[in-house]
């Protein structure tokens, strides 16, 4: 079976996007690692699938598989690329209502950028989840032989935000996996390390569960903004974040308690692959 795909990225966070409605019966979680492999596959941080939704208040359903095959709730850069991808189906509609495992997410195409209503941040420890209750704000956690102060936020998926003096000095390949798999986080965790550059400016590196270090993370930028405003590291409400793949802007509207993400979404190329090849490769792993 020949499968059509589009390769896209949002500030360097890259995706394989497929209209899965045309290819029923495929176990996408099983083939995602082979597709996302950067040497023997197409190469991507995540696989995004367009599916029909059964919800009356949604236009489409988006499913997200990490490069390791695990399915996750939400991706801020991914939802922007998804909105650009489905734009051809809804030319007269710039605001979309997309079903995700994190609930309904609303991206809106505004010129060259995509604005996403990321919803309300969750700060209660048990709901993020972490193995502690209450607001987890600069909570001391020992990881990799060192005490770190984490602020935990869920943007539909769990995040630990850590302020550091210099993000470029971090040995992220060493400490990232130890954060991700720490028993404090029952569902694993995405970890953002942020450096404060100004009253509304941050520099960020991110270790994503199931993907490793990525060039950008939209939910991570959103969680970092919430944590930085909550802890008084920045003034807000709108913050600019510098990531390896480019810049994002995030606004936390305290009146509505909604977080809004602003950033680009780009198509890189499109093509076809034989699904049987990747199914066979996965069976041999």
What report would you give on this structure?
The protein has helices spanning 28-36, 76-86, 172-180, 218-230, 275-283; strands at 2-10, 13-19, 46-51, 60-66, 71-72, 98-100, 103-110, 113-119, 139-143, 146-154, 158-163, 190-198, 201-208, 212-214, 238-243, 246-253, 258-264, 266-274. The protein is of the alpha+beta class. It folds into two domains: 2-112 and 265-283, Roll (Diaminopimelate Epimerase, Chain A, domain 1), CATH 3.10.310.10; 125-256, Diaminopimelate Epimerase, Chain A, domain 1 (Roll), CATH 3.10.310.10. It has an 18-stranded mixed β-sheet that branches. The two termini are 21 Å apart. The model has no long low-confidence stretch (mean pLDDT 95).
**Outline type:** globular
Q: What structural class results from the helix and strand content?
A: alpha+beta
**CATH architectural category of the largest domain:** Roll
Name of the CATH class of the largest domain:
Alpha Beta
Keywords summarizing the entry:
single chain, 285 residues, alpha+beta, Diaminopimelate Epimerase, Chain A, domain 1, 18-stranded mixed sheet, 5 helices, 18 strands, 42% strand
């Amino acid at each position: 079976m020949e499968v059509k795909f589009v390769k896209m990225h949002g500030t360097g966070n890259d995706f394989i996007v497929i209209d899965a409605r045309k290819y029923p019966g495929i176990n996408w979680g099983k083939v995602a690692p082979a597709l996302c492999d950067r040497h023997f596959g197409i190469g991507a941080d995540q696989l995004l699938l367009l599916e029909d939704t059964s919800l009356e208040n949604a236009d489409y359903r988006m499913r997200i598989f990490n490069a390791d095959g695990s399915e996750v709730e939400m991706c801020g850069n991914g939802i922007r690329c998804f909105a650009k991808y489905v734009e051809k189906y809804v030319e007269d509609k710039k605001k979309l209502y997309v079903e995700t495992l994190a609930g309904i997410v609303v991206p809106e195409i505004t010129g060259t950028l995509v604005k996403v209503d990321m919803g309300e941040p969750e700060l209660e420890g048990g709901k993020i989840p972490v193995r502690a209750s209450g607001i987890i704000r600069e909570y001391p956690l020992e990881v990799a032989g060192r005490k770190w102060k984490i602020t935990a936020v869920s943007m539909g998926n769990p995040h630990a935000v850590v302020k550091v003096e210099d993000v470029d000095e971090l040995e992220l390949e060493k400490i990232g996996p130890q954060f991700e798999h720490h028993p404090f986080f029952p569902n694993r965790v995405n970890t953002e390390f942020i450096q404060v550059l100004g009253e509304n400016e941050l520099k960020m590196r991110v270790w994503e569960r199931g993907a490793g270090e990525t060039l950008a993370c939209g939910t991570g930028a959103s969680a970092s903004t919430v944590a930085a405003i909550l802890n008084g590291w920045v003034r807000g409400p709108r913050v600019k974040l510098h990531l390896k793949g480019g810049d994002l802007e995030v606004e936390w509207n305290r009146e509505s308690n909604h977080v809004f993400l602003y950033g680009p979404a780009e198509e890189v190329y499109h093509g076809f692959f034989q699904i049987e090849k990747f199914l066979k490769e996965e069976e041999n792993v």
